[in-house]
Amino acid sequence: MRFAAIALISLLYSTASLAQQNEAEEAIRLSCIESNFASNGIDLLPKLDSIESYLIQTGQLADDSGEAYYSFFKEVGSSRDHFTILPDEMTKIFLNITPADYYTGCQSNFNRGDTTLVINELESELQQIYSQNSSFHADQIALMFTTLLKPKDFDRPYLKTLTLLFIANTSLQETSSLLNQIIQKEDGQEPCIFHSIQLTSTNKWLLNEVEITEENLLNSLKTLLTQNPATFCIYLTYSSQSSYATYSSFNNKITQMYMEEKEKTSTELFKKTYKNLSLSQRITIEKSLPVRMRTEMID
Q1: Residue 115 backbone phi and psi in degrees, to 5
Q2: Cα distance between residue 140 and residue 72, in whole Å
Q3: How far apart are CA 262 and CA 259, in angstroms?
Q4: How far apart are alpha carbons 246 and 65 in whole angstroms?
Q5: Which is more confident, 165 or 78?
Q6: Does pTM top 0.70 for this prediction?
Q7: Where are the domains positioned within the chain?
Q8: Which of 181, 211, 253, 279 is 20 to 30 A removed from 107 (C-alpha atoms)?
Q9: How confident is the model at residue 282 (pLDDT cuts 50, 70, 90)?
Q10: Cα–Cα distance measured from residue 85 to residue 74, given in angstroms and rounded to the nearest whole number
């Protein structure tokens, strides 16, 4: 009996020690994300608090509990094709700082064995979603959250932060989708003039089948975009042997190229930065600079 009691005490001590270790590790990871935002002049946690308050005020969250977050994802997964569209003033800070800036960089500094399995799995899934830079399927991702996490997990500060950041980023994407729907409904886009780009298996760049450095490629694309933005389209192909880092970096640079042109046009037309435009003003900019890019793996 005495030995059983000692074993039970040892087990309880080990469990408590592991919980404390996990809590400390999550605090370090949260601090890393906060620091990355702070380096961009953003105090993150008050911004996320305002998003949470908005979700509660609009009835999308019952309250700030883990149970309420779990129910939110359950509801999205069963009856909605989107998460939520937040007011512009809540999401505009995320236009100039991407998940690659604040999330992926932090994860690369940590050992996957330093924290719990559920954290590892969620981080891996989110990192894959963010790195793909593709459309979110709300029902599938809601299922991911409710499968990996229990209601009480959403009460943990680090996990709640990851969740609110994800909601903010999906709102940006859903707002962009809404803009595209409005634009297409109002009038059709001009036909595409595709510019063929290829990333070879040896990570060389081709523009219209002519080899070119990445720097010259980006300069050429920027020139083509400014000459006729209404018909400018990119057709990017890559090999299964191509470097994903090269491919991802190029996509980010294309996004930045479009953003720079949108900022320039916003200033010229409205004397404002893009993130400070109204919805109708953004529609005007999106019409003049539609982002049309098709990607395909060719082997």
Answers
A1: -145, -175
A2: 14
A3: 5
A4: 41
A5: 165
A6: no
A7: 2-181, 190-297
A8: 253
A9: confident
A10: 18
